[in-house]
Amino acid sequence: MDILKTDLKESEDRLLSPLVYAYIGDAVYELFVRNKVIAENPNLTPYLYYLKTTMYVRASSQAMAIKKLYEELDENERRIVKRGRNAKTKTIPKNAKLSDYKYATALEALIGYLYLENNNERLNYILSQVYQIITKEHNIIKSN
């Protein structure tokens, strides 16, 4: 995966489309959440993992988290979030409000941007904060 990140970074001197950042950010976020849920609940069935994970990856949860985290972002991160939120997408959300979907895209764009920039320290901080915010907001109980 590092080769992919390097190739993308070297081939682009300018910012990528916010939807490209969101596309990779969605995968990074999903993997982070799955790892956390499994680490905190090592003895669940795949279906129960799925149920716990959906609480973190639904648009409404992501939207709530990025809104709460927004004041902690630096100027550049806020710019990426705004570009992600305002990106024109052809996808119409089925199970989410359009405003939540746009903010979820903004969060995923930020995650994708930090990932592709190899800003791992900041990426891990943002992912951890989002996870904690959603856990607290939904009173999600760990099995351990």
Short description:
The protein is mainly α.
Structure explained in plain terms:
The structure is a single chain. With 144 residues, the chain is mainly alpha-helical. It has a single domain, classed as Ribonuclease iii, N-terminal Endonuclease Domain, Chain A. Helices cover 74% and strands 0% of the residues. The protein is built from seven helices and no strands. Helix 2 packs across helix 3 and helix 4 crosses helix 7. It starts with a helix and ends in a 6-residue tail after the last helix. The mean pLDDT is 89. Belongs to the MrnC RNase family. Its cofactor is Mg(2+). It comes from Caldicellulosiruptor hydrothermalis (strain DSM 18901 / VKM B-2411 / 108). Its main location: cytoplasm. Keywords: Cytoplasm, Endonuclease, Hydrolase, Magnesium, Nuclease, Ribosome biogenesis, RNA-binding, rRNA processing, rRNA-binding.
Order of helices and strands: HHHHHHH
Bin the helical content.
Answer: over 70%
Global geometry: globular
Parts with pLDDT < 50 across at least 5 consecutive residues? none
- Give the radius of gyration: 15 Å
At the first level of CATH, the class is Mainly Alpha
What CATH architecture do you see?
Orthogonal Bundle
- Overall mean confidence score, pLDDT: 89
Annotation field: number of helices: 7
Give the assembly state of these chains.
Answer: single chain
Q: The CATH topology is what? A: Ribonuclease iii, N-terminal Endonuclease Domain, Chain A
Distance between the termini: 32 Å
Pfam families: Ribonuclease_3 (PF00636)
Keywords: Cytoplasm, Endonuclease, Hydrolase, Magnesium, Nuclease, Ribosome biogenesis, RNA-binding, rRNA processing, rRNA-binding
Main location: cytoplasm
Domain RNase III: 21-118
